[in-house]
Fold this protein.
Amino acid sequence: MRVLTASVLFLGIAMPAAAQQKGSFALDAMTTPGRHFGAGYYITEGLSLRPSLGFGWSGGYGTIFNLGADVRYEFLTANRFSPYLAGSYNYMRSPYLTDSLVGVLTNDPSNVSRWGGGGGLRARINDRFSVFADARVMNSQVSDGQGTALGPQQFVDYGAHFEGALGLTFFIN
């Protein structure tokens, strides 16, 4: 497995870059709740579909699973700096997740679907790497609560919520 991973990375770095063109493929690493690692496929010059997958574990909250997808449209793909608009959908599963509606406990779903949209800016470092920053308004937020006698608790608060993200993209072709 290590040889395969090293070979893919070596070939990806050695091949000439055709970043942000139709058919390009990219890998993303992101710092935001609900999205961690993802991939991007450019359907057209500026339009990309970006599925993401994340797993996490903590002593307080157990195993957390995230699955999501973004649709992103970049306006100036040939430039070093390219602004974009994005739409997001994310599914999160956590054993200690509870719904909250204006501070009132409503049920115990252990999962939540989140969606929203926003925009950002991608800055190309070179032909293979880009960094990006974006801001989105999501339909809900997951926050830490006081917990119960059984352990810590996370709450889903519905309503518009601002969320920011930073990330790094590696273009394979």
Helices lie at 2-14. Residues 2-171 form a domain with the Porin fold (CATH 2.40.160.20). The chain has one domain: 2-171.
